[in-house]
Amino acid sequence: MKLYSPYTAFGLVLLALGCAQAFSVQDLPETPEDGELWVLLVAGSNGWFNYRHQADVCHAYQIVHDHGVPDDHIIVMMYDDIAYNIENPTPGKIINHPNGTDVYHGVPKDYVCGSVQPDIFLKVLKGEKVDGAMGSGKTLNSGPNDNIFVYFADHGAKGLVAFGEATLKATDLNKAIKEMYAAKKYNQMVFYVEACESGSMFKGLLPDNVNVFATTASNSTTSSYACYFDKARKTFLGDVYSIKWLEDSDKENIEKETLEQQYKIVKKETNTSMVSQFGDMDMSKLPVGTFQGPKPTISLPRPTHPPHYPPSWFSCGADAVPGPEVPVKILQNNILAAANAEEAKEAKEKYDNLMRNRHFMEQTVRDLIRIITNDVGLTNTIFTENVELTQFDCYYAAVDQFHDNCFNVGKNDYALRMLNSFVNLCERKFNIKDITDAIQAGCSHPPMYGIH
């Protein structure tokens, strides 16, 4: 997609008026060549409990597609196990709003299933060659005049986001951004990130002078929230932060609305988590359409006084649930909605099994902490304390050991909630070898999967 500058348009007008002869190239202001817009959309999770992440990403595709971004400039990474999932009452369709329209149609399947990996994501982002066996092979073939929009939705923890069966670390992401800036791989780049503690992906790491602006669903220490529980599908259809920006882009004139205006709307309406922004604040004055597509669409004007918004615009949030509690809430709802005693019993068994597995994981981690601290009171503090991450090397070493030897955080969503204890141990300057040795010694159970 070409991004024509006002100076290009000015020159074309001069030619059209037949007065270009009165001007030379030297008379026109210096301006970079026309650039293009590239879009990278990622849902890192899988499974029916996580329906909402792929629904969010599919909705984002419809927005950028409708605003004129061609498919060859849109790259989508998602597991693609929702549309035709046995749990789906409308096979081949995904919705992102109660009684909403299908958002799955037309979505490119560039990287699916096992190809949803952080290393592939970073290659795609940096425009490096990706083995065609892993997917479409498409990457961001961007240059110094091009803009990039990246949207990511999944689970997260301090300093990382879940990504298939692995994780993307904040330091690796920001290293890639700096490498791209040095290599002139973009003009300006925007990130929207939906994940718990997603602010930790950028806080203290993203410089304000590399032409990148980022907004996140939460700050560095709090959860993001899911919304729109659907009784027919027995899952949540969207995430609050994502729904707020997606539905705002649906109804606003994004060729005029600025990134800052959208951020403020989303922050105000997302009263469940601390929506945050990072990076180059001067970029926030740019139109949203600069990154989500420049083609105008028919928009519903936002009313002023008195407010008379359709109720559905604000309903996402009324039933909002913290991301980590989504599986619990879904199973509780299934018990209440059971049509008969047998169905209720089955739902209750699933709920009890979930809670047993969670308790086992929590107890395992408490035991690990006690090995390290040799103090019951301090163990309880470290298990519950909530501080920002600054000791990245210590923390990542502990996370890697825990991921490899205790609970795979990609295959066990709830394991992400356990990582906070390693933040606390590292921030209190416990020896990293003591931490990793305790993890290796204390995790003697066989591999476990599906602890949500």
Following the backbone from N to C, one meets helices and strands in this order, namely: EHEHEHEEEEHEEEEHHEHHEHHHHHHH
Strand tally: 13
User: Structural class, from secondary structure content?
Assistant: alpha/beta
Principal-axes geometry comes out as globular
Q: Uncertain segments of ≥5 residues (pLDDT<50)?
A: 4-32, 299-314
Largest sheet report: 7 strands, mixed
Helix tally?
15
What number is the mean pLDDT? Answer: 90
What level of helicity do the residues show?
25-40%
Strand-residue fraction?
A: 5-15%
Q: How far apart lie the N and C ends? A: 41 Å
Rg calc: 23 Å
Description:
By secondary structure, the chain is an alpha/beta fold. The chain is built from 15 helices and 13 strands. The strands form three sheets. Strands 1, 2, 3, 4, 8, 9 and 12 form a seven-stranded mixed sheet that branches. The two termini are 41 Å apart.
Would you kindly provide a brief summary of this structure?
Strands 1, 2, 3, 4, 8, 9 and 12 form a seven-stranded mixed sheet that branches. A three-stranded antiparallel sheet has the order 5-6-7. A three-stranded antiparallel sheet has the order 11-10-13. Mean pLDDT is 90; it is low at 4-32 and 299-314. The protein has helices at residues 6-16, 51-66, 118-126, 170-182, 240-251, 259-269, 289-292, 312-315, 326-336, 341-373, 376-384, 392-405, 415-418, 420-427, 432-442; strands at residues 2-3, 35-43, 74-77, 147-153, 156-157, 160-163, 166-169, 188-194, 212-216, 225-230, 235-239, 276-279, 321-322.
